[in-house]
UniProtKB/TrEMBL annotation:
CDD domains: TrwB_TraG_TraD_VirD4 (cd01127). PANTHER family: SLR6007 PROTEIN, UNCHARACTERIZED PROTEIN YJGR-RELATED. This is AAA-like domain-containing protein. It comes from the Bacteria. Residues 366-470 form the TraD/TraG TraM recognition site domain. It comes from Modicisalibacter xianhensis.
Amino acid sequence: MIAGRMDALALTAIAAGVAAATPWAAGTLPAWPAGILGSLGMAQLTWSQAMAKLRQYDEDSREGFILPSDDPVEHNGPGLHIGLTTDKNTRINMPDILGQRHTAIVGQSGVGKTTLGEYILWQQTARGRGWLFIDAKIDRDTRDHLAYMAKVTGREDELYIIDVSDPDNANTYNPVLHGDPDEVASRLMNLIPSAENNPGADHYRQSANHALTVIIAALQASGQLYHFGDLSILLQSDRALENLERMTPQGPERRALSIFLDQFRTRTKEGTRIDLNRMKQTLGGMAGRIALFAQGKFGKVFNVYAPEIVLTEIIRKGHMLYVSLPTMGKDTAALNLGKMIVSDIRSAVAYIQDLPKGERPEHFIALLDEMGAYVMEGVGRLFEQARSANIALIPAFQSFSQLNRVSPDFADIVIQNTWNKIFFKFGAKDSPEEAAEILGKTKRFQRTVSVSANQGESAQYLRTTPQSSMSDGGGMGESWREVEEFRVTPDQLRAMDMGQAVMMMGARMYHLRTPMINYPKHIPSFKVIKRKMKIPADKQALNFEERLNEFLTATA
Ligand SMILES: Nc1ncnc2c1ncn2[C@@H]1O[C@H](COP(=O)(O)OP(=O)(O)OP(=O)(O)O)[C@@H](O)[C@H]1O
Ligand SMILES: [Mg+2]
């Protein structure tokens, strides 16, 4: 039925046009594109539309309240649908130009963050644009959903997967191959815990960073392609380093490497040699951590000279990348991998930001789910640069305190750098006060009614004709006082339903019901498309792992 990508995209465009024209059409998505998507759609929206006809505001109920929403932002450009307002059922779209100012999604576990993320990526896939999704859970469903989206839009060949828990059904990626030497070195530094307030550890970090920068600069200058396996050998073998020194053409990179090696050289009767023990003291820790990525399942994904996945290319070409980070087992290696990928995004963003405007992607989405788990310090710059590279970041996390574990002011950095905020239900202990504060206050009039009453009776008994009087008085006062209170109270944030969210877009606030895609019952499970990659003609593979014996016997 579908001949290829162009047909699928044409169908998509028709459907998107219909959906954009009327909010009622959103409910008809199950029929889209007739017969192909099956029951993919949002029947639930139609129900909410009917209900909303009956109710308007209800700010007082403890549950099921309906807050007044602001008017939608007027814009004619492209945008993504986020949800329908609970009060008037207005369709709320986020214009791409605001999306590029980034969006934070916050809410407790199981309330709809990933569901909304999938819905956003669905629209992005359907309109033929690119995205990157870092998922901190092993959730095969999410992967299969995204693969299904790519399939029905005829874009299967544009979807890439990084999955270290299932490397045979994933693509290859080499996170140390691309970028300037200092970028690659700082990417690798994510493997070592931060050394704040620890001068000894800080010295060690700096030495390791210096060594890595020098080695990677030499590798790049000599046109050698390398991977984690090669780096771990280089950091542990004097022979390997001397070999690299000989390979490196004369120039600043070679000089830097020679000077670096010189500090470990000692004179012996036979001449000079590198004091391996001293070198290992300086670099051993780093070498061990790097070696971890060269072995087993990690190695299958990362130990490649011509990786299928190159982040800059994915972003520039508007392709799609799903990264599965198996962080559930508190696996530090997986978290470190997440950090390295985020660092790689940083390098890619910096590179793309420098491209002429016409060569930047149109609107690329990077959805960083459970971002608190793998993000590192210094990511604030990423937000700033991403905007000018047309990359919309969507970090999602469970609470502000989760972010503050990265650094004390990290939550502030995220809040300040995101134009849009989508708050789902907060957990009891997740301090929704901060979210309520961000959503802002509103002025309301408080009415006070006071009632007073008095009665009196008097009689003059001395008179021969006694006179008596009775009186009755009463008063009612009504006063209005202007008070400031939260637009959405912390209690309301705690009491929201699944799939309900309060969104801030700049200064405007919306109380939304977010859509959920109903996938067909039997989605085929994902099967990777492997790409045949070639080493560029002007480069060579270092292949130190194959020559390991040579280096070992020499050092013995
Ligand atoms: N818009 C929605 N309408 C109705 N139900 C929803 C909606 N969004 C989510 N849900 C329900 O909530 C469940 C959990 O959603 P989701 O996985 O998106 O949560 P999450 O916030 O990403 O949780 P976690 O932090 O654990 O990853 C869904 O399986 C679905 O049953
Ligand atoms: Mg989730």
